[in-house]
Amino acid sequence: MFDLVDILKTKSDAKPVTQELITTVLFYQTQECMDLVEEAFRFEGLVSPSMLENSDQNIQQHIRDSQISVVIVELNQSSNVSKDMERISHLLPNEASVIVIGSEDAISTIRNLKGMGFYYVFWPIPKQELIDFVRNVDSNRKRNSGLGKDRTAKKVAVWGTKGGVGATLMTAEIAYELSTKKNSSCLIVDHDFRGGNLDIFLSLDKHEKKPVTRSSITASLDATYASSMVKKISGMLSVLSIESEELNELELKEYARTLSDQLSGQFNFILEDLSRSSNCKQDLNYISEHSDILLLMIEPTVSSLREAKRVQKHMDIMSSKTRTVFVLNYTMPENAATITEVDIKSYLGKSADVVCPNDPKLGKMVLDKKHMYEMNSPVGRSVNRITYLLLGQNEQKQKKSIIHRLLKRGG
């Protein structure tokens, strides 16, 4: 007997169809790309990506708001895809896989993006091919394979050519600016294992270094353990600061770098504070092989300049690919300096990349827990210039972009 009630009941008990979820965001430049991505996802039954216009401001504001698996960046209107991706790479979380869509049909573009840990697809691309590519990238991410797993922090070594030249203070200021204004996650590695003033410059109260024993070195060391040794200052800024009654400084230095290597996939930047009291020749060997940037802090004195020359010569002998940024910090009034900026250029063969003027109120500012990078002053702007150099950004272009956005809002 035909039973309509049973048929309806069977249909009502059927499980609802759930959409396949790959948490994705698209930063688009053209309507054509946005329409194709949306149609491709909808046609395949995938949850559509969040759609945002491709701008540094949008990426900075929205990329870390949720757990995103795949980031798609359209650069069809870019004149240099590699440079544009290098410029915004610090805004992208390392745990997300990144697909770049562009119209540059060049092997060098693919190679450059691969070196940065990004996938590249050539535009125009069929809808089915795009979806297959996205699924493959997401599968690689879940299996911890593919390009995403190789994207690690950019390493910056801040080297003080003598004690009191400002290496620790500059490390703290740069880290704060990168993490608060540039939306880049940062880890500071403290290389002063006996004391130091990093906690003061970071405005930390009751800061204690993590104790390390000889037995802990032989224990299983993975990213989870390394994370337990880190102190979180904010959601985007952390510090690795250790001490030991059993290990000497060279052993602690090696251990700190082993920990930071385990953590490199979790941060955009790792900054090593190497003030003059805690650096040595072995550090230069490490920097020449493993660091992306050497920030060389000098002051206008003969001893500081001679040390800078020694460091420069060592890096040349090592044929290092590490980029050196010279920062001249006036720790004394300009009229009390024993050498001039002309002397520095003559001796080093180049001018200082950034000059930090003397500010007699700096000490009080630090004790009042204020930060240089936030100040609209000559010393504050010098910190901003260093940050621009680390990010590979053009300071004038960034200022014009900010002015343009402000005018646009006003209109």
TrEMBL record:
Alphabetical list of InterPro entries matching this protein: P-loop_NTPase, ParA/MinD_ATPase
UniProt keyword ATP-binding, yes or no: yes
Keywords carried by this UniProt record: ATP-binding, Nucleotide-binding
Keyword Kinase among record annotations: no
Name used for this protein in its record: CpaE family protein
Higher taxonomy: Bacteria, Pseudomonadati, Pseudomonadota, Gammaproteobacteria, Vibrionales
